[in-house]
Amino acid sequence: MGRKKIQIQRITDERNRQVTFTKRKFGLMKKAYELSVLCDCEIALIIFNHSNKLFQYASTDMDKVLLKYTEYNEPHESRTNVDIMEVMEEGERRGCYCVVPCRRG
Fold it and tell me: What are the MADS-box domain coordinates in residue numbering (predicted)?
């Protein structure tokens, strides 16, 4: 049985927002771990909550990954919330939920 689809918007209730943050933060870190193991890649995840508390995950040494990031000069993929929302909206229009352009339509 599937879960109810929620609307992605700010949670107004402080307690519910904190519970959701804690659960989803762990889920995000778990996904980062799985991606690093399955695809043999380095991942650095940095999160600041609403009160500026820092949470971090790194598949290897965080300082080494950040140094590699700051020294990287090649063109690379970079996305923001707006970019992700556009991809999701396009997917809904086409009936395809891909992060890369799909061949349908």
Answer: 1-61
The closest of 39, 44, 41, 71 to 55, measured between CA atoms, is 44
46 domain-assigned = yes
Residue 42: what pLDDT? 97
Residue 86 belongs to domain spanning: 14-94
Q: 92 is written with which tokens?
A: 């809904």
Would you state the structure tokens that stand for residue 80, as one six-digit string?
A: 């923001």
- This prediction has a pTM of 0.78
Q: Tell me the pLDDT tens digit for each residue of 30-80.
A: 999 999 999 999 999 999 999 999 999 999 999 999 999 999 999 999 999
Q: Which long-range contacts (CB under 8 A, 24 or more apart) does 22-27 make?
A: 25/55
